[in-house]
Structure formats: structure tokens, C-alpha cells
Design brief:
two-stranded parallel sheet; 4 helices; 17% strand; disordered N terminus
Length: 129
């Protein structure tokens, strides 16, 4: 049985992810709604050059693209429809939101219906892109 994660834990995990990824090579971070807790989310959306994470300033080298037409709480069918519209298949799709059982169900649907490589990373997993 999966363990529930509080909103505070999810926010901290997302902030840690931003702190880990922003100093590295430039990247794009698509976001639906507000994935990073204030004040980081607003700063990232405003293209801040630096954000303060755990008391230290971190250079932001990612371009944050807001997906205004999509809620961060879309259902699986909406997510699959959005993914189908992609011009290119991604090398890997990562499911990083939702309860473990729901995330794994979405992973399986993406693999079965789209034929894409898809993973549900564990907390604190690191991936080289």
C-alpha cells in the first residue's frame, strides 16, 4: 500500500528538485498551475536569475514555460490527449505527481497507449538528461 505525502512534503521535494536542476545545463521546465511553492514559483515564472533555496542563492538556468491551458490536476485522459499532441516523442516521460498507485497506473497507460518509455521516479531519485 502506498504512503500518502503531504502538500508540504511535495512542495519541499519540488523546491529541492529546482535547487538540484537549476545550476546544471540549461533546460526547459514546463509547469502546469503552480508547481513550486511561493515565493519560488512566482520568481521562476518571472524569469528570476537566482532564487534562494535552503538559505543559499542558486542560479536559475532553466526556462520555465507556463502551460496556462492545463491544470496540474488534469485527469489521465486529459494528460494522454495532451501527450498525443506532442510533435516528438520524448526519450522518457517522468510521472512526478499523484499518489503512487495512480502515478503507476498513468505510467502503464502511457506505455501501453502511446508506446513511450515512462517512469515513476522514487523520492530523491536523480536522472541525467
Amino acid at each position: 500500500m502506498g504512503r500518502s505525502t503531504s502538500s508540504a512534503q511535495k512542495s519541499a521535494r519540488t523546491t529541492d528538485d529546482v535547487a538540484r536542476s537549476t545550476p546544471s545545463s540549461p533546460s526547459h521546465r514546463p509547469s502546469a498551475s503552480a508547481p513550486v511553492p511561493p515565493p519560488h514559483g512566482a520568481a521562476l515564472q518571472a524569469s528570476a536569475a537566482q532564487i534562494k533555496v535552503h538559505g543559499a542563492y542558486v542560479d536559475v538556468r532553466a526556462k520555465v514555460v507556463a502551460l496556462a491551458g492545463m491544470s496540474s490536476h488534469a485527469d489521465a485522459g486529459q494528460i494522454l490527449a495532451w501527450l498525443r499532441a506532442a510533435k516528438r516523442r520524448p526519450r522518457t516521460t517522468f510521472i512526478t505527481h499523484g499518489e503512487p498507485a495512480a502515478a503507476d497506473t498513468l505510467r502503464r497507460r502511457i506505455q501501453e497507449e502511446l508506446g513511450w518509455n515512462c517512469q515513476v521516479p522514487a523520492y530523491r531519485d536523480s536522472v541525467t538528461l
